Amino acid sequence: MNISLTPELEALVEQKVKSGLYTSASEVVREALRLLVRVDEVRQREMAELNRQIDEGLSQADQGRVVRSADSRRRSQATLKRASS
Question: Is the distance from CB of 62 to CB of 71 less than 8 angstroms?
Fold first, then answer.
């Protein structure tokens, strides 16, 4: 596999190797890819939770369990005020 990096990324890889934290450019890239996998996993969990919350909200709306926007705004402002106190 052949990978092209921008000059900035290439300098970063070289800097990591020179720091002694990594023994080769390949090791830096492998670590970066492992971290990317973790980030993707977190993002997928966050999206699943967001979709769950949306589904819950839509279900509540279908049941007529809704809050007027003015009431919601007042609740949010009160919550922010308590949090900043």
Answer: no
CA distance 62 to 21: 55
On whether the pTM is more than 0.90, the answer is no
Q: Which tokens belong to 60? A: 């509540």
Distance CA 75, CA 60 (A): 18
- Look over the chain and give the mean of its residue pLDDT values, rounded to a whole number: 95
Look at residue 2 and give its three-state secondary structure: coil
Which amino acid, 60?
Q
Q: Which helix (H) or strand (E) holds 5?
A: none
pLDDT tens digit sequence for 8-30 = 999 999 999 999 999 999 999 99
